[in-house]
Amino acid sequence: LGVIPDLDLAEALQRVTGVQVNRNNRNRTGTVTLRGLPETFGRVTMNGQTIVNPNSSNAEGGGIGFPFGMLDSDVVSGINVIKSPTPEYVEGGLSGIVDIQTRDPLDSPDFATVKIGGRHETLADSLTPSVSGAFSKKLNDTFGVAAAIGYQGLEFRRDSISVNGYSEGADGNFRPNQVRQTTTISDGFQLSASADATWRPTDNLSFDLSGIYARENLDTTDNILRFESRPRSTVTDLTAPTANGTIYGVSIENPRFRLSGRLAEESWEVFALNETTTWTHEDWTLSGYVNYSEG
Q1: pTM given for the model
Q2: DSSP 124
Q3: In angstroms, rounded to a whole number, what is the distance separating the alpha carbons of residues 221 and 157?
Q4: Pairing mode, strands 49-50 and 42-46
Q5: Model confidence at 290: pLDDT above 60
Q6: pLDDT for 61 beyond 50
Q7: End-to-end distance of the chain based on CA atoms, in angstroms?
Q8: What is the pLDDT of residue 60?
Q9: CA-to-CA distance for 16 and 19, rounded, in angstroms?
Q10: Euclidean distance between CA atoms 98 and 283, whole angstroms
Q11: Calculated CA dihedral for residues 25, 31, 37, 38, nearest 10 degrees
Q12: Bridge partners, residue 81, by sequence
């Protein structure tokens, strides 16, 4: 991760066989589907421990998968996609597990990097900045620290057309009576960070404290043009009725036009902190975990 210029962690995940990235939601957070099952059937962990999903439900009450697009690919060291979980993994991932890995400073060379870039959106005609930095440092042979942070400005646009209603004509067929054209403009930012501290006083005992944080803020404006039929309108069929009596193509003369707008301020936030203690002796390994996560 971080070698190929992925825009976020969701783009990095889409290169894994059997993983499909979904970007239909309006905030572009990038959920994933494993093995063709719904996105909520997967389990997301950080260093083997559960991380809460800040996207647990939408306005209609349906579930949404974990928003991997909130995380900069530079703030994590790797991703493990487990499609067939074994007993050592946290239970609950019916379609599989996506484990986000932070950097172990004792197993990494010392380094420091800074990246500066930008994202261009053709439809919105916008250019937003992105910057990230990371470092790893061994303070001695037994203790090391690592941290990373990434910021991405957001400004994008989405255009959509939808049929919002049907009415029954005198012939018993149903025809569209209201069409809505929406231009959605979103403006905001993403901020993500991770940190890890490892202490290994002996070869068979280690203590690891790791954390991850991500936040996305969006101000979204919907400009809605709605046109609908009224008693004075002339409706002409453009397609034949289907077997259930629905006509999907019509021409509406003298319709009613309405223009409206709405503004939504949205934010998503997730935080996780793990402490792992591992002791090994010959063929035995004993591990203890303390985990806290909120979103």
Answers
A1: 0.82
A2: T
A3: 10
A4: antiparallel
A5: yes
A6: no
A7: 25
A8: 40
A9: 6
A10: 28
A11: -40
A12: 98
Nearest to 157 by CA among 217, 221, 224, 226: 221
Provide the residue type at 133 as one letter.
G
Query: Lowest-pLDDT range, 32-41, 54-63, 67-76?
Result: 54-63
User: Can you tell me the distance from the alpha carbon of 219 to that of 153, in angstroms, rounded to the nearest whole number?
Assistant: 12
Look at the chain and count its residues. 295
CB of 103 closer than 8 Å to CB of 193: no
Type of residue at 257: F
Q: Which amino acid is at 231?
A: P
Q: What's the per-residue H, E or C state across 7-62?
A: CCHHHHHCCCCCEEEECCCCCCCCEEEECCCCHHHEEEEECCEECCCCCCCCCCCC
Beta strands in the chain (DSSP E): 19-22, 31-34, 42-46, 49-50, 78-82, 96-101, 111-121, 126-138, 143-168, 174-202, 205-228, 234-237, 250-253, 256-281, 284-294
For residues 214 and 129, what is the distance between their CA atoms, to the nearest angstrom?
A: 17
Q: Give me 243's structure tokens.
A: 């077997």
DSSP state of 246: B
Identify the residue whose tokens are 């397609």.
239
